[in-house]
Predict the structure.
Amino acid sequence: MTTNPLFFRKTAIALTGLFLCLFLIVHLSANCILLLPKELAIPAYNSYSTLLRESPLIKIVAYLLYAAILLHVFYALLVTLRNRKAKPVRYAVNHAGENSSWASRNMGVLGTLILIFIVIHLANFWARIKLGLGEAVPSDPNGNLDVYSVTYELFQNAWFVAFYALMAIPLAWHLHHGLKSGFKTLGFYHQGGLRIIARISLIYAWIMGLGFGIIPIVVFFK
Ligand code: HEM
C-alpha cells in the first residue's frame, strides 16, 4: 500500500469523477424527457422531479453527489497548485503539444468553467426548487411542483440557451480527458484496455456534450 499523498489525491479525483460521470448519465437521461411533446413532457418531468425530492434513498445519493463535487474540486485544486509549484519555470521550448493533449494541460481551466456553470445552474434550478429561494414554483394539475415550467421559462431566454449550449463544449472536453485519465489512475494500464477506454471516453463525451448542448436549443424552439 502506498501512502504517497499525490496518489491519494489523484485516486480521490478519479473516484469522485467517475461517480459524477454516472450522475451525468442519469441527469441527461432524465432531461431527455424535455425533448418529448409538451403534453407528455410536463407530467413525466414533474413526477420525476418530485421523486428526486421525496425519495429518502435518492436524498442520500444527492448528499453523496454534493460531497463528490466538493471533494473533486478540492483535490483537483491541490494537485494543480502542487504541479505549478513543482514546475515554476516555464521553459521556452518544452514541446508540450507533442507530449500531451491540450485538454490534459488545461483540465484546471476546463474544470473552472464547469464549476462556474454548476454554480449558475444550481442558482437557476436547485436554489428555487429545493431551497425555495426566489420566485415560488407553481404546481401542475397533478399537484407536483411544475419544474417543467421553470426549465421552459429559462430556455425562452436566448442568453441562457447560448450559455448552456456553449458550456457543453468545455464539459465534453473535460469529460473526454477526465474519464480516460481516471481509469488510468485506478490502474488500467494494459495497452488494449486503454484503447477501449479511450474510445468509450470519446463516445461518452460526445453523447454528454451533444445531449446537454441540444436540449436547451430544442426547448427554446418548442
Ligand atoms: C440541458 C441541460 C440541463 C438541464 C435542463 C438541467 C436541469 C436540472 C434541474 C431541473 C435540476 C433540479 C432537479 C430537481 O431538484 O428537480 C437540476 C439539478 C442539478 N443539475 Fe442539472 N440540468 C442540465 C445540465 C446539467 C449539467 C451539464 C450539470 C453538470 C455539469 C448539471 C448538474 C446538476 C446538479 C449537480 C444538480 C443538483 C442535483 C440534486 O440536487 O439532486 N446539470 N438540473
